[in-house]
Amino acid sequence: QQQVKQSPQSLIVQKGGISIINCAYENTAFDYFPWYQQFPGKGPALLIAIRPDVSEKKEGRFTISFNKSAKQFSLHIMDSQPGDSATYFCAASGGGSNYKLTFGKGTLLTVNP
Amino acid sequence: DGGITQSPKYLFRKEGQNVTLSCEQNLNHDAMYWYRQDPGQGLRLIYYSQIVNDFQKGDIAEGYSVSREKKESFPLTVTSAQKNPTAFYLCASSIRPRGPDTQYFGPGTRLTVL
Fold first, then answer.
1. For strand B109-113 and strand B10-13, is the pairing parallel, antiparallel, or unpaired?
2. Which residues in chain B are closer than 8 Å to A94, comparing Cβ atoms?
3. pLDDT tens-digit profile of B31-64?
């Protein structure tokens, strides 16, 4: 029940295209859903996060879509750039005092020039 | 510069040796965390600490130990009991000890067992 399932495992997109990464969760107590971006050999950095009281959050070229009834959320990267090539992790936490982040297994995004 | 520092960046260990990974933060955060990252496995929580002198086991604590004697420091010891310690280790911190909150990560330590 603590799992967060992320897909696809890897994704190749052309420059200017839209990258879409999906995550699904089971624990209905989750109430915080961040996305992290990680470059090789570096620590993950928070990209964008959403709480379940909204269905969408946009920051620049990055958008989270959230579907509470389906227990799914996704990251959309518009106008993808080669500099966006990285591994992306979705995560979830919540449920009273449970502040531990449960991470998906990651998506390796490659944006070709 | 505020942030999280981890040292060393690379660490090599012989089988049977204990090693300690350093994690320091100057963000004045209450909570600190240790994760292990393996290829294709995402991040798995080893230990976390909500406050000085207190810490709890995460999902994969066996073979690891921690201490939290100071707010800014949360060292991780990988003991000889850890059967497969080769991995990328990440330290993180967050402002509040309870409730969902942004976790900020350090640059990581890559541990290799020879």
1. parallel
2. 100
3. 999 999 998 788 999 999 988 999 999 999 999 9
Partner residue facing B100 (CB), from A32, A36, A106: A32
Residues whose CB is less than 8 angstroms from the CB of residue B70 and which lie 6 or more positions away in sequence, other chains included: B52
Dist. CA A15–CA A80, nearest whole Å: 5
CB atoms closer than 10 angstroms to residue A23: 25
**Unique residue bearing structure tokens 């967050």:** B94
State the best of A1, A3, A99 to mutate against chain B, taking most chain B CBs within 10 Å: A99
How far B17 CA lies from chain A's nearest CA (Å)?
24
For B68-97, how does the pLDDT look when each residue is reduced to its tens digit (9 = 90+)?
999 999 999 999 888 899 999 999 998 876
The residue whose two tokens read 């958008």 is A63
**In this structure, are strands A86-92 and B104-105 parallel, antiparallel, or unpaired?**
unpaired
Cα separation, A23 vs A46, in Å, equals 16
User: In one letter, which amino acid is B106?
Assistant: G
CB–CB of B42 and A94 under 8 A? Answer: no
Least CB–CB distance from B105: residue in A44, A49, A99: A44
- Beta-carbon contacts of A69 under 8 Å, excluding residues fewer than 6 positions away, are none
Residues 6+ apart with CB under 8 A from A60: none
